[in-house]
Design a protein that fits this description.
Order of helices and strands: HHEEEHEEEE
Number of helices: 3
Helix content: 25-40%
Radius of gyration: 26 Å
Strand order of the largest sheet: 4-1-3-6
Strand content: 35-45%
Number of strands: 7
Oligomer: single chain
CATH topology of the largest domain: RNA Polymerase Alpha Subunit, Chain A, domain 2
CATH architecture of the largest domain: Beta Complex
Shape: rod-shaped
């Protein structure tokens, strides 16, 4: 009986299955610890815009570099740069994007963004 059990555990098929399971487990564990970077173009969006003003942003798209775990980066596919327009007055404004305006999860870091400063033109509607 013990020889039968010993042969079953040491058979070529059993060793292949166990090594496959262990290899996949190690690959998943190591893959989630690895920090990756991702470059993405995000649009500039405004909220709390008063009805009597119009806003033009130059550029309308910001290129950002993010770093974090692969599983966390997959959740960042629909990002946008959100700017509160309630405090903007008519005229020229220069704004530097921040990670708070992107609403990033805590596990994701904003590494770099291009351009470093955006130009906003706020005008009254006539």
């Amino acid at each position: 009986m013990t020889a039968l059990i010993k042969n079953a555990f040491l058979s070529n098929k059993t060793i292949k299955i166990v090594s496959l399971i262990l290899g996949y487990s190690v690959w998943c564990f190591i893959g989630n610890l690895y920090v990756q970077t991702m470059t993405q173009n995000v649009p500039v969006c405004f909220y709390n815009v008063p009805e009597n003003i119009s806003i033009q942003a130059k550029p309308e798209v910001v290129t950002i570099n993010l770093s974090g775990k692969r599983s966390s980066l997959y959740t960042c596919s629909d990002l946008a740069l959100h700017i509160n327009a309630a405090s903007l007055t008519p005229g020229e404004h220069r704004i530097a994007p921040t990670s708070d305006q992107l609403f990033l999860p805590e596990t994701i870091n904003l590494v770099h963004y291009q351009p470093l400063v955006m130009s906003l033109t706020v005008t009254n509607k006539t």
